[in-house]
Amino acid sequence: MVHLKTAEEIQIMRESASILAKTHGEVARLIKPGVKTRTLDKKAEEFIRDNEGIPSFLNYNGFPASLCISVNETVVHGFPGEYELKETDIVTIDCGVKFKGYHSDAAYTYPLEGVRSEVLDLLNRTYDSLYKGIEQAKAGNRIGDVSNAIQSYVEQFGYGVVRELVGHGVGKSLHEDPEVPNYGKRGKGPKIVPGMVFAIEPMINMGTKQVVQERDGWTIRTSDRKPSAHFEHTVAIHEDRTEVLTTHEDIEKNYSYKWRSKSR
Ligand code: MG
Ligand code: MG
Questions:
Q1: Is residue 44 part of a domain?
Q2: Which of 93, 102, 96 has its CA nearest to residue 15?
Q3: Which of 26, 100, 156, 219 is 20 to 30 Å apart from 205, CA to CA?
Q4: Nearest ligand atom owner, CA of 170
């Protein structure tokens, strides 16, 4: 069942998303070779709590951290820990904030400065696919229009679209209806109506779409161990426009490597 949000609820979610965007911006300052992923997680948790939020992911179904940190072939749900980032890594930071009872959810994949151009292409194109999806996320369309926009854009490059993990409604629960797959047919799926708030989050693999779960019960990686990228926004549907509640602006301002202009 889809919970449609009132204007008042969307206003709270806007504030939740604003804390989330700033949290991402704080983490962005720390991303460099040698940093432990645990340090990033600690920063995020402190910043969220200092701003009267609650980390949505911490203890969610037993998840042990405030950030999902997924390096290289890890698609999603990686644990922060003692691992130190390397010059040639890509790293996805996925974060959720709960504020006054409402969640927001956003993710971003960073390349470090030694990442090769084929991998930068994967990141640039996955980033672009998120916006292709957002363009279709408007009142009157269907979820399949969003799904198809993402899938058709990235598959032309031979990339694999992960099937097992999908975007989702966001609200009082971190994951609500509707599901927002990154693959599908135009004109199919639930109708998009004002008051819907959902996360769009392409998870795109350089090689096969197949993924496997590690024995820790959480970490998902590509089965061919090629890299995977993930960008996510939470959007709110209004009658006449779609509002991206989360933003990557703080990330792009604070991350030292201006990679988006590279290799396209
Ligand atoms: Mg997320
Ligand atoms: Mg999500």
A1: yes
A2: 102
A3: 26
A4: 2
1 domain-assigned:
no
* 81 φ, ψ (degrees, to nearest 5): -175, -145
Res 254: pLDDT: 98
- Is there a contact between 234 and 167 (Cβ–Cβ < 8 Å)? no
Indicate the DSSP class of residue 36.
B
What separation in Å is there between the alpha carbon of 140 and the centre of ligand 1? Answer: 25
Instruction: State which residues form the domain around 178.
Output: 7-261
Residue 121 lies in a domain: yes
Contact 148, 141 (CB under 8 A): no
Four-residue CA torsion sign, 108, 161, 164, 196? positive
Q: Would residue 70 count as lying in a domain?
A: yes
Structural contact between residues 71 and 89, judged by C-beta atoms closer than 8 angstroms:
yes
Distance 106 CA to ligand 1 centre (A): 5
pLDDT in tens, 182-198: 999 999 999 999 999 99
**pLDDT(221) > 90:** yes
pLDDT one-digit tens code per residue, 119-174: 999 999 999 999 999 999 999 999 999 999 999 999 999 999 999 999 999 999 99
**CATH assignment at residue 67:** 3.90.230.10
* Ligand 1 mean position, distance from CA 127 (Å): 14
Question: Facing residues of 93 across strands?
Answer: 69, 108
Structure tokens at 125: 């194109």
Query: How far out from the chain centre does Cα 247 lie?
Result: 11
